[in-house]
Write a structure and sequence with these properties.
Radius of gyration of chain A: 13 Å
Shape of chain B: globular
CATH class of the largest domain in chain B: Alpha Beta
CATH architecture of the largest domain in chain B: 3-Layer(aba) Sandwich
Strand content of chain B: 15-25%
Oligomer: heterodimer
Distance between the termini of chain B: 61 Å
Largest interface: A-B, 15 and 14 residues
Helix content of chain A: 25-40%
Shape of chain A: globular
Structural class of chain A: alpha+beta
Number of helices of chain A: 2
Order of helices and strands of chain A: EEEEHEH
Number of domains of chain B: 2
CATH topology of the largest domain in chain B: Rossmann fold
CATH architecture of chain A: 2-Layer Sandwich
Helix content of chain B: 25-40%
Radius of gyration of chain B: 24 Å
CATH class of chain A: Alpha Beta
Number of strands of chain B: 22
Strand order of the largest sheet of chain A: 1-4-5-3-2
């Protein structure tokens, strides 16, 4: 198991009041994403725990696109990876951001 | 005495009229065959003349050797055992997926002298020109004492093989599940069959076309939505062929739901050249499908098809009549779209399922997945595709194009990228001295590529550079995809050459399993009114 850390400055803070959200599951080919709101800043900090080595550049590319497209400022995101492919990672991140944006 | 008469005379001691005891089949084969004969063991991706294959593999290599195998499928271990034992030396075939790894090893060690890898239709064609078999070993459900054969729903290759062998002085030997007083339907007339034997077990049939809806992912549903809204709808695709992947199964299961909501019923997916996929049941029951012609059958679909003669081709007694050669021709000339998956695609859109360790052959995909240059009838889909590809030529005559769509996730099993700079098939060809690399679908036949990232329309590309950038544009986070030129990518998007889900007003978060018309095999059984009877391995409920 290895842990990767990424930090970004998003274009804006993600709207919505929800403090945290959990999407996905730690299953083969899937991943669990925990999103937690952090105060004030537009930073987005991402931690990835994965058993699959050698894909740092792919994580970097997926996360950079995600930050650019969804502006998830003010979030701390923890990922438990079960060997998910990039499309599933992008899907779960987008689902997580949508949940955090809900006012419920 | 003709060669056939001589063969039949040598075989006489082992048969009573046409009937041979199962235990005598190897001796019969040793009597009938002569060294160097061309032999076809019937078998494709579905049914297998498995008892006769085993009997041939048991022959003495002193008596039988140097055979040239000319057959659709290398599927059973015995199909390769004959090469290990020296009974056969030369091979021409079409499909070898289940034995892909072993055949690759045996080609490297020169255990097999390979003629060519063919498409089904191409090999059938050569049966009538320069690869006519001397002896055919075929499979049927039942035979009567005159040798009339009933094939059941899996007629498949049998009429084509028998046509070539029986009328060109060859010998036809059939294994049957039972000997009966009268066959329910004559699929092969008895005067074309020289010997029949009742095999101890019914011949094997692989349920290759059953996809459990429970295995369909959200990504595959997204790709299916892209196919329906981005290709089927704008081109008005009525006549088509589907591959066997989970992505195309997802399309079938979205017809009565998603495509219905788009108002497409009756204007797309009405006429099919396709095997009886169980995942088509909901669309058939919802009245989407007008007609289906089949290459072969599918285990468990027999009663359902017998109850739907308005949809399927059936004979006396209601049983399906399939025919691989004719359905391949239908897919080539009478369909406007082929959609299927692949393992590797290069930057010009050439694709292959051959890798360093596996040689899978072609089957029928290249026949369906190619533009039929001899086609002379027009349809809306064909003309629209043709107009797009010829838009840059001002004085070109009107002419259509087949829609050839590759649907592929950017990463395959164990994170292997589907998009590569160079196909492994090219290296294999160099290593084995093949005259051409084993390419499944050539890039110049491909019109669209669908991935989870979007659709690339290659008809609109005006240069090899544009084509390369369009492919990079849908190649996602593969190395090939990450090297895209972002400026060119935006230009291609503006011109509609690359379309992302949002460009088609599709929200990837809507891609949900609840959209599938059936979520499980059990749902398919229920949808068929209990007529679909899935094989045991799919009865997981």
């Amino acid at each position: 198991m290895q842990t990767l850390h990424f930090s970004y400055r998003a274009a804006s803070r993600l709207p919505g009041k929800r403090a945290q959200a959990l999407v996905g599951v730690v299953a083969s080919g899937d991943l669990e994403v925990l999103l937690q709101r952090t105060p004030q800043s537009t930073d987005c900090m991402v931690t990835v725990s994965t058993a699959v080595r050698g894909f740092d550049a792919v994580w970097e590319a997926v996360l950079a696109d995600f930050v650019e497209r969804r502006a998830p400022g003010g979030l701390r995101i923890s990922i438990n990876d079960g060997g998910a492919r990039p499309d599933v990672v992008a899907l779960r991140l987008t689902q997580g951001v949508r949940l955090m944006g809900d006012d419920a | 005495m003709s060669s056939r008469d001589a063969r039949l005379a040598r075989a006489a001691p082992f048969s009573q009229d046409k009937v041979v005891a199962a235990a005598d089949v190897t001796a019969l084969l040793e009597a009938v065959l002569t060294p160097g004969d061309r032999v076809c063991i019937e078998g494709d991706n579905q049914k297998q003349a498995d008892y006769l294959a085993r009997a041939l593999a048991r022959c003495s290599s002193e008596k039988v050797h140097g055979l040239h195998m000319v057959q659709s499928g290398i599927v059973l271990p015995e199909h390769l055992d004959v090469f290990d034992r020296g009974i056969a030396t030369r091979l021409d075939c079409s499909y070898s997926a289940p034995q892909g790894a072993r055949i690759a090893r045996m080609l490297r060690t020169r255990r097999i002298q390979l003629g060519s890898l063919h498409t089904y239709l191409e090999l059938f064609a050569r049966y009538f020109i320069d690869l006519t078999p001397n002896v055919a070993l075929i499979a049927a459900v039942s035979a009567d004492s005159a040798g009339n054969l009933y094939t059941g729903p899996n007629t498949e290759d049998t009429p084509t093989i028998v046509e070539a062998v029986a009328f060109k002085g060859g010998v036809v030997i059939a294994q049957v599940n039972e000997l009966v007083a009268q066959v329910p339907r004559v699929d092969i007339p008895g005067d074309r069959v020289h010997f029949v034997t009742r095999s101890p077990q019914p011949f094997y049939v692989e349920p290759l076309f059953t996809r459990d809806p429970a295995g369909i992912t959200e990504t595959q549903i997204l790709m299916a939505m892209l196919a329906i809204k981005g290709i089927y709808a704008p081109y008005g695709v009525r006549r088509l062929n589907h591959g066997i992947g989970f992505d195309t199964a997802a399309i079938e299961l979205l017809l009565p739901t998603y495509a219905d909501a788009l108002g497409l019923k009756g204007s797309v997916c009405t006429h099919w050249a396709v095997n009886p996929h169980p995942t088509l049941i909901p669309a058939i029951e919802a009245g989407w499908v007008k007609q289906i012609h089949c290459f072969g059958s599918e285990v468990g679909m027999e009663d359902y098809m017998a109850a739907r003669p308005q949809i399927f081709f059936t004979g006396v007694g209601g049983t399906l009549r399939s025919n691989r050669a004719l359905c391949q021709i239908a897919g080539l000339y009478a369909c406007d779209l082929f959609i299927g998956s692949t393992l590797q695609m290069d930057l010009q859109g050439n694709s292959s399922t051959v890798t360093r360790t596996r040689i899978a052959g072609f089957g029928g995909a290249p026949n369906m997945g190619s533009d039929a240059r001899g086609r002379r009838h027009a349809s809306e889909a064909w003309l629209k595709a043709g107009a797009e590809s010829r838009a840059a030529q001002s004085n070109a005559l009107p002419r259509g194009r087949k829609l050839v769509v590759q649907i592929v996730e950017s990463f395959g099993e164990s994170m292997e990228p589907a998009f590569v700079e160079r196909l492994e098939a090219v290296e294999i060809a160099e290593e084995l001295g093949l005259p051409i690399p084993p390419v499944m679908i050539y890039g110049d036949d491909v019109t669209h590529i669908i991935t989870e990232n979007g659709i690339a329309n290659l008809l609109l590309c005006r240069s090899p550079e544009e084509r390369e950038q369009a492919i990079r544009g849908v190649a996602g986070y593969t190395e090939v995809g990450r090297q895209r030129d972002r400026r060119v990518f935006q230009q291609l998007r503006e011109r509609g050459v690359v379309r992302l889900p949002e460009d088609l007003d599709i929200d990837p978060l809507d891609a949900d399993r609840t959209m599938l018309a059936a979520g499980s095999i059990r749902d398919l059984v229920r949808g068929s009114g209990g007529l679909y009877r899935p094989p045991a391995r799919f009865r997981n409920y």
